[in-house]
């Protein structure tokens, strides 16, 4: 099974992917995580990506496509999270033979509320939220004891810019995949469990269990 999770920042793509990976043994391929790994390597490409992301802009199409194709080579069971993000990327990836595109719909204000409250440990491994998922000790990760921080691209101004870029460049993908007969609309404003139930109704997952 090959799936794409499509939605604005804060729509819950990561949470949905985690549940699908757990239940159906799919590989979660997160573009955001791939980019962060490249940044962590402090390569020339990583520095370029970091500067682009911190300005709230999207990574250039050719770089995104190249990175994804390398990762999914010879794989048949995966979830693409955060890719494609432009019409160019979508058209160039039709040959991947995606089974379904899950479009998680959310408003700008809800996205800001979710993302600006997010905190991660300094190692970047564990995620919390000041309103929904707090740590036992304020400001400290429960797992590794490191300080909880807010990433620059999670700050409100950056989130609003990311949502604006999404609306301008990525939302047209909804029409593209609808025409291809691959789109399933999901109300991402609901609770995580309600969202997941909608997804299971939208997909014929029985043959993958």
Q: How many DSSP H or I helices?
A: 9
What is the CATH topology? Rossmann fold
Q: Could you report the average pLDDT, rounded to the nearest whole number? A: 87
Strand order of the main beta sheet, please?
Answer: 2-3-1-4-8
Task: Tell how many strands the DSSP assignment holds.
Answer: 8
The stretches of 5 or more residues where confidence is low (pLDDT under 50) are: none
Summarize the helices and strands and which ones pair or pack.
Blueprint (H helix, E strand, L loop, with lengths): L1 E6 L5 H12 L2 E4 H10 L3 H11 L6 H12 L5 E4 L5 H6 L7 E6 L2 H9 L1 E4 L5 E3 L18 E2 L6 H15 L2 H7 L3 E5 L4 H11 L7
Parallel strand pairs: 1-3, 1-4, 2-3, 4-8
Antiparallel strand pairs: 5-6, 5-7
Helix pairs in contact: 2-3, 6-7
Keywords:
209 residues; alpha/beta; Rossmann fold; five-stranded parallel β-sheet; three-stranded antiparallel β-sheet; 9 helices; 16% strand; globular
What does this structure look like?
The protein is α/β, with parallel strands linked by helices. It has a single domain (2-106, 163-208), classed as Rossmann fold. 44% of the residues lie in helices and 16% in strands. A five-stranded parallel beta sheet has the order 2-3-1-4-8, with helices on both faces. Strands 6-5-7 form a three-stranded antiparallel beta sheet. The protein is globular and about 45 Å long.
Task: Write a short abstract of this structure.
Helix content is 44%, strand content 16%.
């Amino acid at each position: 099974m090959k799936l794409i999770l499509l939605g604005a920042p804060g729509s819950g793509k990561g949470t949905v992917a985690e549940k699908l990976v757990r239940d159906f043994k799919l590989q979660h391929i997160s573009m955001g995580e791939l980019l962060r790994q490249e940044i962590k390597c402090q390569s020339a490409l990583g520095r370029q990506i970091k500067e682009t992301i911190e300005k709230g802009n999207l990574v250039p199409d050719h770089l995104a496509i190249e990175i994804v194709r390398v990762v999914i080579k010879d794989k048949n069971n995966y979830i693409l999270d955060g890719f494609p993000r432009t019409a160019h990327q979508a058209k160039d990836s039709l040959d991947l033979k995606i089974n379904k595109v899950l479009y998680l719909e959310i408003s700008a204000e809800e996205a800001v509320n979710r993302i600006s409250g997010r905190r991660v440990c300094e190692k970047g491994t564990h995620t919390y939220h000041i309103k929904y998922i707090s740590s036992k000790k304020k400001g400290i990760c429960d797992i590794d004891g490191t300080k909880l921080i807010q990433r620059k691209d999670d700050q409100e101004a950056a989130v609003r810019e990311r949502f604006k870029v999404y609306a301008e460049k990525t939302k047209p993908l909804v029409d593209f995949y609808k025409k291809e007969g691959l789109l399933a609309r999901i109300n991402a404003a609901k609770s995580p469990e309600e969202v997941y139930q909608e997804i299971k109704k939208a997909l014929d997952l029985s043959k993958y269990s």
